[in-house]
Amino acid sequence: MTKSELIAQLAAENPHLRQPDIELIVATIFDEITAALARGDRVELRGFGAFSAKQRDPRTGRNPRTGAAVPVAGKSVPYFKPGKELRERVNGGEPQAPLRARAAE
After folding, report:
1. Coil vs helix vs strand at 49
2. Where is region (Disordered) located (predicted)?
3. Which residues, listed in sequence order, are joined to residue 50 by a DSSP beta bridge?
4. Which residues pair with 52 in a beta bridge?
5. Does domain 1-41 have CATH number 1.20.1300.10?
6. 42-105 belongs to CATH 4.10.520.10
7. What CA–CA distance (Å, rounded) separates 55 from 53?
8. How far apart are CA 93 and CA 61, in angstroms?
9. CA distance 31 to 33
10. Is the separation of the CB atoms in 6 and 30 below 8 Å?
11. pLDDT tens-digit profile of 45-84?
12. CB-CB contact of 50 with 80 (8 Å)
């Protein structure tokens, strides 16, 4: 599912919201997750999973054409660890009500 498909599905499920508002909501959520990861924070969405940034150490790589050694700098990479509930639903576990329905209970 692409970002535009997500927005279209949310618009179809929520006809009381305008599409530009839904676009803003989705963009804001993604921007906040990105900003938190850039600060080195962890973002946990209960029942879905956790986003974090992992540090990769500097290493020596190889140029595939020449085989020459190339230094590769250390860097932070985004990492996602799915939650137990998400893993169960993806693997065909017991069907559960959508998260928003349970939140309303």
Report:
1. strand
2. 54-105
3. 44, 81
4. 79
5. no
6. yes
7. 7
8. 42
9. 6
10. no
11. 998 999 999 999 999 999 999 999 999 999 999 999 999 9
12. yes
86: three-class secondary structure by DSSP? helix
Residue 46: partners with Cβ closer than 8 Å, 6 or more residues away: 83
Same fold, 1-41 and 42-105: yes
Angle at which helices 3-13 and 19-39 cross, to 10°: 130
Model pTM? 0.73
Q: What share of the chain is helix, strand, coil (3-state, %, to 5)?
A: 45, 25, 30
Encode burial over 4-33: b for 16+ CB neighbours within 10 A, e otherwise.
eeebeeebeeeeeeeeeebbeeeeeeeeee
